[in-house]
Amino acid sequence: MNRNLVLIGFMGAGKSTVGRACARDLGFAFRDSDAAIEQRAGKPISDIFADDGEAAFRELETATVHSLARRSRTVLATGGGVVLDPTNVAALRETGVVILLWADTETVLARTSRRSTRPLLAGSAGPRARIESLLAQREPLYSAAADAVVDTTGLPRREVVDRVLAVYRRVSCERSPPKPETVG
Ligand code: S3P
């Protein structure tokens, strides 16, 4: 059976771009949980946070992730906070190989400063302090949720994609080893 490939990791780790390329190579569908949440809510994530608050966003995220996890032959890019709810992690792990895309603070800072669509980084302390504190809080959750980690720091995107695909194939095989050949 083809398990899904699930990418988790902090904002700016490259989950969507890497996920899209992996889906192309595997011949799988691609889904982005943030995009699916925006579709359900009928508005951008920054508006969901501003109008309804983070708790409402997390509820939508959980409903969306549970429904996406039921798909098959899908590469799924998740939002950086997906690991905050253990039921999300359980649902994703049931049908998928979960790979953590890791990036250091500098990389996250550089990648997230290009767009201002991330409400969690908008606080008064400035993005670096916010990133450091969220990373420290979430690192153990990411590690516990992941089957494997790919450190993207300093790597070109194609290299990250190749590493993710290699890890995905290895873990998929370990989870469901090929049937022994029948002789005769
Ligand atoms: C969040 C990450 C965002 C988005 C929301 C909350 C988080 O997704 O889900 O702004 O809690 O880290 P990306 O990781 O795709 O930026």
Q: Sheet with the most strands? A: 5 strands, parallel
N→C terminal distance: 25 Å
Specify the structural class: alpha/beta
- How much of the sequence is in beta strands? 5-15%
- Mean of residue pLDDT values: 93
Kindly state the number of beta strands: 5
Poorly predicted segments: none
Record keyword descriptors for this entry.
single chain; alpha/beta; 184 residues; globular
Describe this structure as you would to a colleague.
- The chain has 184 residues and is α/β, with parallel strands linked by helices.
- 55% of the residues lie in helices and 13% in strands.
- The protein is built from eight helices and five strands.
- It has a five-stranded parallel β-sheet with strand order 2-3-1-4-5, with helices on both faces.
- α3 crosses α4.
- The radius of gyration is 17 Å and the shape is globular.
- It binds shikimate-3-phosphate.
- Shikimate-3-phosphate binds next to loops.
Layout of helices and strands:
Elements: E1 4-8, H1 15-26, E2 29-32, H2 33-41, H3 45-52, H4 54-69, E3 74-77, H5 86-95, E4 96-102, H6 105-112, H7 127-145, E5 148-151, H8 157-175
Parallel strand pairs: 1-3, 1-4, 2-3, 4-5
The protein binds shikimate-3-phosphate.
Give a brief description.
The protein has helices at 15-26, 33-41, 45-52, 54-69, 86-95, 105-112, 127-145, 157-175; strands spanning 4-8, 29-32, 74-77, 96-102, 148-151. The protein is α/β, with parallel strands linked by helices and 184 residues long. A 5-stranded parallel beta sheet has the order 2-3-1-4-5, sandwiched between helices.
